[in-house]
Amino acid sequence: MSVKNSFAAGAAALALLGFASGASAHALMIQKDVVAGSWHIMEIGLPHGCAGSPTRTVRIKVPDGITMVRPQIKAGWKLSMTMKKMDKPIEAEGITYTETVDEIVWADGNLGDLEFDRFAALIKFPNEPGKTLYFKTVQQCEKGEHRWIEIPSGGKKWGEYKEPAPFIQLIASPPQQEAKAP
Ligand SMILES: [Cu+2]
Q: How far apart are CA 65 and CA 125, in angstroms?
């Protein structure tokens, strides 16, 4: 199948996933809006390879301000992570953490050009409603790579970039529903 068709296939897959028809078949955040301060499973989906070549390694850079990350293991992929020092240590469940995850790497996999998969991590998001967090993602294929690392600036929209970075929008937590008396 030609590359053009694989993009069409990718876009069709997106439509099935309920993504707006404008959403390009790129590295995409499965759920963009996340309640600030909450734990959430961040998932980045890859709906195609590199010009027909299968994906072998996926690297996701964790944006600053995130202190707790638990990457998801994936059968058939070798998971590793690099750590970075935090400005100040944090305490969680009686354990003091001085480092957090800087980059997550899934390597030695084999995701075909016409196949879809998602790469996930459980993350504690900062309590900063309104903040946008970009997860720079590098998709290394057998031949070539995609560097989904472009961050919008100067009024240019996310969708206008060739390789935009998937992002999460932190939102305020919705008002608690008063429990109605039975
Ligand atoms: Cu694409």
A: 8
